[in-house]
Design a protein that fits this description.
The chain is α+β, with helices and mostly antiparallel strands. The chain is 30% helix and 35% strand. The chain has six helices and seven strands. Strands 2-1-5-6-7-4-3 form a seven-stranded antiparallel β-sheet.
Length: 204
Amino acid sequence: MYTPNLYKNENPEEIRAFLKENSFGILINQTNGKLCATHIPIELEVNADGKEILQGHISKLNPQAEGFKENDEILAVFTGPHSYISSSWYDHENVPTWNYIAVHVYGRIKIVDYETSVEQLKKLVDKYEANSKNPVRVEDLSEKTMREARGIFGFEIEIDEIQATKKLSQNRDDHNYKNIISELEKTENPQSIAVAKEMSKCRK
């Protein structure tokens, strides 16, 4: 991922928190000579060896999985808030731009066994059911319903490299920086307001 030095995020704790909060990602690989992508939850976890990995699952009907046998190299893309930045918000002439946060994870994927896949599903469901009024638990599902789990491939990704970009107008002086935040907050657009909040955290 092309990232000018000014916008590189090399803070492991920030990146870890970002991946946990923005875990609906894009899994990209090459299958039969073509690039394939699937939009799925991909969770940051720690394996038995204490090493951070990504894990998730895809349908066995998804042809993307065929490529894992030929070439286990993958790219997982995660995006956070983003917004158009109008140059009319500056006190000088310049070009418009876009502010955003994104993380690319490069690694090697392997399919896990059925039992491990079910354990992954339990963690995933528990995470997203935590605030439900009547939370669903995988352990409580009938045998008939759980047969559907036979239709997925669970996977783990050994992480080789992480590239993180946090482009939030770091190149602007304090006056223009504060004005960008103010204008973003006026938009009433949830993405723009989220960018404003991230910018406020970076510079008081």
